[in-house]
Design a protein that fits this description.
By secondary structure, the protein is an alpha+beta fold. It has six helices and 20 strands.
Length: 347
């Protein structure tokens, strides 16, 4: 089974309208411009929900709920996409990033329109870290964007219509300006067999070396038109420091005995049954918020092609409304196709 087919099952919960904008199309807040200086990127690869909180010093909580025991289980890679970056023994992983060493803004972050279809507002929200596999408490970033491409997604319509057409990226990137790199430390709270630690960010030079080694470990996709590897260095060039945080199905689990259809169903189910309830909590989930289909299943013109021969959308179909793929997804975190989610809480 080729790598592209494995990627189909990770999808995260961030979605853009079908005729949406591009990666650099952000909602602007005029109160204070983004400061200049070296940039930190926190890459959340996998089925993360990101909740923006209106109160408190640390205004963002990012998390991945725990899957059900009988479902596909996830693994966690930290600071690198490489297999030797796999962290085990903690049971769950909890992190906290103070604002020390970072510029802070007195406004909400600029948010890419790629999240429009899955960005919701709730009246009340309380984090429940005991229910989460990975939790991060973060300062409010300057902007939230994603690594292209967007994947077609069909949501429930909430009416008699067959569905609501949209699209979704597979990750979040939270961006910060660094005032003093020596002060930036991601604190890992103790859990399971893991002790309290403090982690500095990885320099862009080091992360590029780790990507290079990963590319040697993992074979290139046979579909060169979807290869994002030539663009990794270009994307990372705008940052000086990176935290890579990845969650996904282990490669061995993503292959046999689970079929492609099971992986796709896992992604849809994780979105509908884990991410959405984790954001809405006791509040009712709108009927048009749930996901029906992802990937090529959304494009009816491709129904005559097998899943094995059509693991992802063709650029020629979506080129007029969506950006070209720029990056190849990384690590075992590619193996779970649940879209990402984003919510805003008034409390």
């Amino acid at each position: 089974m080729n790598r592209r087919e494995i990627l189909k099952s990770i999808f995260t919960l961030s979605a853009l309208s079908a005729m949406g904008g591009c990666r650099h199309d952000f909602r602007k807040d005029p109160r204070r411009p983004i400061p200049s200086g070296p940039k930190l990127a926190i890459i959340l690869q996998g089925p993360f929900a990101v909740v923006l909180r209106k109160n408190g010093e640390h205004g963002v909580v990012a998390f991945v709920p725990k899957p059900d025991p009988g479902d596909m289980q996830h693994e966690f890679r930290f600071l690198s996409p490489l297999s030797n970056a796999l962290m085990t023994g903690c049971g769950s992983y909890r992190f906290f990033l103070p604002h020390h060493g970072l510029e802070t803004l007195d406004r909400e972050p600029d948010i890419s329109h790629g999240f429009d279809n899955v960005r919701v507002t709730v009246d009340e929200w309380t984090p429940r870290p005991d229910d989460y596999f990975v939790t991060l408490e973060l300062p409010s970033p300057e902007r939230i964007t994603y690594v292209p491409p967007l994947y077609p997604a069909l949501f429930e319509s909430g009416t008699s219509a067959p569905g609501r057409l949209g699209s979704a990226p597979l990750n979040h990137i939270l961006e910060y300006t660094v005032r003093s790199a020596d002060g930036v430390r991601l604190r890992q709270n103790p859990s399971g067999n893991c002790e309290r630690q403090e982690h500095p960010p990885v320099s862009v030079e080091d992360i590029l070396q780790r990507y290079g080694k990963y590319h040697q470990e993992m074979p290139e996709s046979p579909d060169a038109s979807f290869s994002q590897r030539p663009y990794i260095a270009k994307l990372l060039a705008q940052y000086s420091f990176v935290y890579f945080i990845g969650v996904g199905v282990p490669p061995t689990q993503a292959s046999s005995p689970f079929s492609t259809r099971n992986r796709i169903n896992h992604g849809i189910g994780f979105f509908n049954e884990k991410l959405l309830p984790a954001i809405y909590q006791l509040q009712p989930i709108p009927p048009d918020a749930k996901l029906k289909k992802i990937g090529k299943d959304v494009l009816q013109c491709n129904t005559g092609q097998s899943e094995m021969s059509m693991p992802a959308i063709r650029p020629a179909i979506w080129q007029y409304s969506m950006p070209q793929p720029h990056l190849r997804y990384i690590s075992s975190t590619e193996n779970c196709t649940s879209p990402v989610a984003m919510g805003s809480s008034r409390t």
